[in-house]
Amino acid sequence: MELDIQCEEMSPSRWAELLTTMKSCKTIRLDDCNLSSSNCEDLSSIINTNPSLTELKLNNNELGDEGVEYLCKGLLTPSCSLQKLWLQNCNLTSASCETLRSVLSAQPSLTELHVGDNRLGTAGVKVLCQGMMNPSCKLQKLQLEYCELTADIVEALNAALQSKPTLKELSLSNNTLGDTAVKQLCRGLVEASCNLELLHLENCGITSDSCTDISAVLRNKSSLMDLSVGDNKIGDSGLALLCQGLMHPSCKIQKLWLWDCDLTSASCKDLSRLISTKETLTEISLIDNNLRDSGMEMLCQALKDPKSKLQELWVRECGLTAACCKAVSSALSTNKHLKVLHIGENKLGDAGVELLCEGLMHPNCNIQSLWLGNCDLTAGCCATLATVMATKQCLTELDLSYNPLEDEGIRKICEALKKPSCNVQQLILYDILWSSEVDDELRALEESKPEVKIIS
Q1: Which domains does the chain have, with CATH numbers?
Q2: Residue of 18 and 205 predicted with greater confidence
Q3: Fewest Cβ atoms nearer than 10 Å: which of 75, 206, 261, 351?
Q4: Distance between terminal CA atoms of the chain?
């Protein structure tokens, strides 16, 4: 049994009602429910008396250190079987880390700990690392984003990594680590016996200086499938170094996020080689890099390679225009694997999207999610988009936000949605102006086709 509630204010009567339900739940998720430390006393009792409970998610609640102390009393009982604990943005400080250390040391069932967005600080996470080093700790996933960590944390993390072969996922994004610390961390990861599958280092103050060491992790950890170094100024030279590791035969990368990394079209030669030859790679994010049309054309050529297995390509805000759309269309008509294309916030215009639609209509194209927000589109391209919607049953999600489509364009899209052949389930239309009459038509459409969600 699963309890999954979000963004609900808890009255005493509602809380009492839910407590009865929780006694038999395997999963309890109560994000954004205005919970406090007093609710944690009750939850501690539930943890103690419900041995089937394996996941507890309490993100974005003002639990505080006192609340976590109550929770941990339940977590330390022999009957507790909790495996996943989510406490992101719960107003915790380093004081909570001593209590959580006790849980890590004594509770072998706990395999996931998510404590990001809390002011734990370097001192607090050092205490958590002590708990991880206990032989009883079997932690597999540790999420420490936005925890106000500094370079001083790496020595403790490396010591924990050395003693924790079970660890598969480590997220340290949005902490001011810097190159020296990231290099030290990577050397520790190479030496550690853990089989890391996910490493997230977004916005950690990384430059090209760290990329040789990250590349070494890619070469030596064939288990690593998910790497995110977005929002770091690695530049074209850093990307070239990363690609040395990514192209190594032992690297089995599947998901690569390089958003806002100061890349230009010069990087696209290396990226194209990666896309066309690394058959494990299924998702790449290049959002907010100045790739330009010339860079996108190189990527499209790679997508046409039979060895490319890419399923998701994110190239939002990459300085693209209609000039690259013929190449994108050709790639869409060739690559059967691509399912998700995020190409919004580029000046494609109606002419560019008309070209894209030629590729989308090809029998080889299997696109499921297409994002065209803020692409300078008007009602002029909506008839062609409507034809794609009504014809391509694989297309289930379409984003047209921030485009001046007006009543004429929205009506054409609505006509497509009404057709039985249209399988679009989510239509995103943020910040588009239309009349009250069209608004009524949209609401009527949602009522007649409840499976369609229109987000505006």
Answers
A1: 1-148 (3.80.10.10), 159-262 (3.80.10.10)
A2: 205
A3: 351
A4: 33
